[in-house]
Specification:
- With 178 residues, the chain is an alpha+beta fold.
- It has one domain.
- Helix content is 21%, strand content 30%.
- A seven-stranded antiparallel beta sheet has the order 1-2-3-7-6-5-4.
- It starts with a helix and ends in a 5-residue tail after the last helix.
Length: 178
C-alpha cells in the first residue's frame, strides 16, 4: 500500500513540476532548450521516395538531346539513372540519401560554389582528370545530395559543353527535390 501511495505522489509531483502554476488552463513551463526545430538537417527531405529516373521526365530528357527512357544504374552509394546521347556521352543523376556536399570528395580541375534553384551546390569541372566530364552536386540537406554528371564522348575535351549539359539538367531536376 505504501508503494502505491509513494508512486502516486511521485506521479503528481512530476505532473505539477511541468506546469507554471497558472489557474485555468495550465501550460507547460518553458525549458532552456530554445525553440523546437522545424526541420531536421539530417533529414533526406523525401529523397528516399524519389526514383532516380523520375528526376527528368521523358519530355525534359528529349529536349536536352538524351535518349529515353533513362536506365537505372547504381554506382557506389548512389542510386542513379543514366540517359544517353547517341554517339556523344551520357548524363547521370545520382541520389545519395546519406551524403551531403561536405561528405563528398570533389577533385576536378576547378570546383565552384553555385546555386541551383533554392539549393547550394558545387560544380566540378574535369573530375578525375577527364576534360569531357562536369558534375553538379546539389545539397538537398546537410546529409543528402543529388549529383548530376555529364560526360561527353571520351575523345572530347570540351568541359564547357559538358558543364552546360549538366547545368541545364540540374535546373530541371532541382524543383523536384523540394
Amino acid at each position: 500500500m505504501k508503494r502505491i501511495l509513494i508512486a502516486t505522489l511521485i506521479g503528481f509531483s512530476v505532473l505539477a513540476a511541468g506546469c507554471n502554476g497558472t489557474t485555468g488552463n495550465p501550460t507547460p513551463t518553458p525549458t532552456t532548450g530554445g525553440t523546437t526545430p522545424t526541420s531536421n538537417a539530417d533529414s533526406t527531405s523525401g529523397l528516399k521516395s524519389i526514383r532516380p529516373c523520375d528526376l527528368l521526365t521523358d519530355t525534359e530528357a528529349t529536349s536536352l538531346g538524351y535518349k529515353t527512357p533513362g536506365e537505372p544504374a547504381k554506382v557506389a552509394a548512389s542510386d542513379g539513372c543514366e540517359w544517353h546521347v547517341p554517339n556523344n556521352g551520357l548524363l547521370r543523376a545520382g541520389i545519395r540519401t546519406n551524403a551531403g556536399i561536405k561528405d563528398l570528395t570533389l577533385d576536378g580541375d576547378k570546383i565552384t560554389d553555385i546555386k541551383v534553384g533554392k539549393f547550394a551546390a558545387k560544380k566540378e569541372e574535369a573530375g578525375n582528370g577527364s576534360k569531357a566530364t562536369c558534375t553538379i552536386v546539389i545539397g538537398v540537406t546537410e546529409k543528402s545530395s543529388v549529383s548530376v554528371i555529364s560526360t561527353l564522348d571520351v575523345s572530347s575535351e570540351d568541359t564547357a559543353a559538358s558543364c552546360e549539359r549538366a547545368s541545364k539538367a540540374a535546373d530541371l531536376i532541382a524543383p523536384k527535390l523540394s
